[in-house]
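F.,

This is the one I mentioned.
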């Protein structure tokens, strides 16, 4: 049955014989023009919408909607979304994506391959395998390293900790019931909550993540880690992994990797590095030293969807010894074709059916290159230092700590107000920045108080944005 006999819109599918190419071109042109109209004027739109109304048309219409009605609803959704392309959108770890990664996403969608098996994605599966082996060597994990892309950093953490648990206790077949001691891991008290999700899903419970105290700059204290491991063993628990963070979510700080790696090795514990955000510093010659010690990691999480500007989603789990996935994670699927020496990625990953995110990553790497990423990363770090410097010049502002990457966090502590009113003052300042300057900074709860968090990701954010930011801060602080 051909498409016209089914009474579908002429452009509902692309005719593989080219019969409706003209209709498809018109449709694509309208959507591309719509996107470009918004993106090329993104600086004129607020980084965060004042409201986000939904289209009034039904979500499940009986008959096909007119394309003009569809575009009108689309326009409403676009204008009600966070505007990551705005130079004033400096509050979250969500960058504007590279142009080529957006185009790559379109190509991937047109092919609609499934990363579950080599047969279903013959080119992309091999490209992902090769590229992630390169990433493993790039981060210093060695010639036996490799990994896979995942839908999010939390899934990468889950993958890594699952392998770590199975290596430590050999429970992938028979489960946890025979264990006499509770397995536990260690992470700083400001580590990402995806670790608790992982241990919950692993059947260990959220309490299996033992928090280790961090210092004034939100970095894990190695001596506290040693004490926590000792206390856990004395309490009858079974430590099996340590997680260090490169780029804490709120302040962007980096745990002391050399010391933590040494402790993990001495204690014979799996060493996982969650560099979901901060792993990008490794591309910068000027900043790479901050990740000294990462080469000790048994596994590593990194999200190119953040500081490598790849459109979502794109995260990865890397392993020092890639072969461990075959032994301690793989579950074969009898309905798939044998891939020979190649292991089907869906058999060794949390996800089975998976989008081919590798293309947009590969395209972005080709277009930007390592030196291009170095310049982008250095630019963000320099701007963060500028924000920190400006905050230090104002006695009524307090820094959360020295920036270690492109994140600066500060808050107002005006002495003309009681301390109990400071959170409200910072909340109103955030609202003023958005309303009066089209600048959005986030307002995380950190150490029991509200802080203003600035994340310098957008390549079009420059000194003029920082100047406007602090001009508004000064105006707001004027009694």
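My design for it:
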């Amino acid at each position: 049955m051909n498409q016209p006999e089914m009474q579908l819109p002429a452009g509902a599918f692309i005719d593989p014989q080219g019969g409706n190419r003209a209709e498809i071109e018109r449709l694509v042109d309208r959507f591309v023009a719509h996107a470009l109209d918004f993106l090329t004027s993104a600086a004129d739109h607020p980084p965060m919408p004042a409201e986000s109304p939904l289209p009034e048309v039904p979500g499940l219409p009986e008959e096909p909607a007119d394309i003009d009605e569809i575009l009108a609803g689309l326009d409403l959704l676009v204008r009600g979304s966070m505007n990551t392309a705005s130079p004033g959108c400096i509050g979250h770890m969500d960058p504007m994506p590279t142009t080529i990664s957006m185009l790559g996403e379109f190509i991937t969608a047109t092919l609609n391959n499934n990363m579950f098996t080599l047969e279903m994605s013959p080119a992309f599966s091999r490209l992902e395998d090769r590229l992630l082996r390169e990433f493993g060597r790039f981060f210093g994990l060695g010639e036996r390293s490799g990994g896979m892309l995942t839908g999010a950093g939390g899934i990468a953490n889950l993958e890594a900790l699952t392998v770590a648990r199975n290596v430590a206790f050999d429970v992938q077949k028979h489960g946890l019931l025979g264990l006499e001691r509770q397995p536990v891991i260690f992470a700083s008290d400001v580590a990402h909550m995806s670790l608790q999700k992982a241990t919950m899903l692993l059947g260990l419970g959220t309490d299996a993540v033992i928090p280790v105290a961090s210092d004034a700059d939100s970095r894990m204290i190695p001596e506290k880690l040693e004490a926590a491991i000792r206390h856990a063993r004395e309490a009858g628990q079974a430590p099996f992994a340590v997680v260090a963070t490169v780029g804490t979510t709120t302040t962007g700080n980096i745990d002391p990797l050399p010391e933590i790696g040494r402790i993990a090795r001495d204690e014979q514990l799996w060493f996982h590095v969650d560099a979901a955000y901060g792993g990008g510093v490794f591309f910068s010659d000027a900043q790479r030293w901050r990740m000294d010690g990462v080469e000790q990691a048994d596994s590593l999480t990194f999200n190119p969807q953040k500081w490598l500007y790849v459109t979502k989603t794109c995260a990865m789990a890397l392993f020092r010894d890639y072969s461990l996935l075959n032994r301690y994670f793989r579950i074969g699927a009898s309905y798939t074709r044998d891939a020979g020496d190649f292991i089907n990625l869906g058999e060794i990953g949390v996800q089975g059916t998976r989008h081919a995110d590798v293309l947009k990553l590969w395209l972005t790497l080709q277009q930007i290159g390592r030196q291009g990423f170095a310049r982008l990363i250095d630019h963000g770090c320099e701007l963060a230092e500028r924000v920190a410097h400006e905050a230090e010049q104002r006695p009524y502002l307090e820094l959360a700590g020295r920036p270690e990457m492109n994140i600066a966090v500060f808050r107002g502590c005006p002495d003309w107000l009681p301390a109990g009113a400071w959170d409200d003052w910072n909340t109103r300042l955030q609202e003023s920045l958005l309303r009066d300057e089209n600048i959005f900074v986030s307002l995380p709860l950190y150490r029991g108080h509200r802080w203003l968090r600035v994340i310098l990701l957008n390549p079009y954010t420059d000194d003029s944005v920082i100047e406007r930011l602090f001009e508004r801060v000064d105006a707001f602080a004027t009694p």
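Residues 358-392 form the longest helix (35 residues).

Talk soon.
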